Amino acid sequence: MKTQTMFGVSLAALLILFVTVWGAPREVAQTQSCRSRPDVLGKCFRVHGRLSIYNGTPSIRLWPMGTKRLLGVIDPNDVSNAPGPTILPLDIKNKLDWDKDVFGDFIVCPLTRKQSGRMQTVCIADGKNLTVREHKLTEK
């Protein structure tokens, strides 16, 4: 009798497992990207510039070449500021570190409005024509 009960329990557990696995939706969760974030404030735009890591917050900054501005690359909803897919595409993240700058054409999406005298925060949706160069410290 005990063997029949254990067999019944095992068969029921196997049936539940089968229904759970085969009945589950087949969709693979998509990673949220910069463009699809709900907090993007406007149209994404192209910036030709240098992406670097700085001390301070935000630590990842994009300098649009030919300007005196810096764009902060940050996720205001993530206090860790860890560069994930909603802030920086993986292929760009893998090229960037303290000793390297990434130059290229970046598609950025605004997370704050542009204001005189303030760093605008953005996320980076894409990068093309990327060149990695050794970071050079400027001395004054």
Could you explain how this protein is built, in words?
The protein has a domain at 45-134. Mean pLDDT is 77; it is low at 11-31. A five-stranded mixed beta barrel has the order 1-2-3-5-4. It is of the alpha+beta class and 140 residues long. The longest helix has 22 residues, at 2-23. It starts with a helix and ends in a 6-residue tail after the last strand. It is globular, with a radius of gyration of 24 Å. It has helices spanning 2-23, 90-93; strands spanning 45-53, 60-64, 71-73, 100-110, 120-134. The chain is built from two helices and five strands.
Structural class: alpha+beta
Q: Percent range for helical residues?
A: 10-25%
Number of helices: 2
Count of beta strands: 5
Provide the low-confidence segments as ranges: 11-31
Q: What general form does the structure show?
A: globular
Largest sheet: 5 strands, mixed, barrel
Strand content: 25-35%
Kindly report the spatial arrangement of strands forming the biggest sheet: 1-2-3-5-4
Order of helices and strands: HEEEHEE
What is the rounded Rg? 24 Å
Structure in a nutshell:
By secondary structure, the chain is an alpha+beta fold. It is 19% helix and 31% strand.
In terms of topology, how is this protein built?
Layout: H1 2-23, E1 45-53, E2 60-64, E3 71-73, H2 90-93, E4 100-110, E5 120-134
Parallel strand pairs: 3-5
Antiparallel strand pairs: 1-2, 1-4, 2-3, 4-5
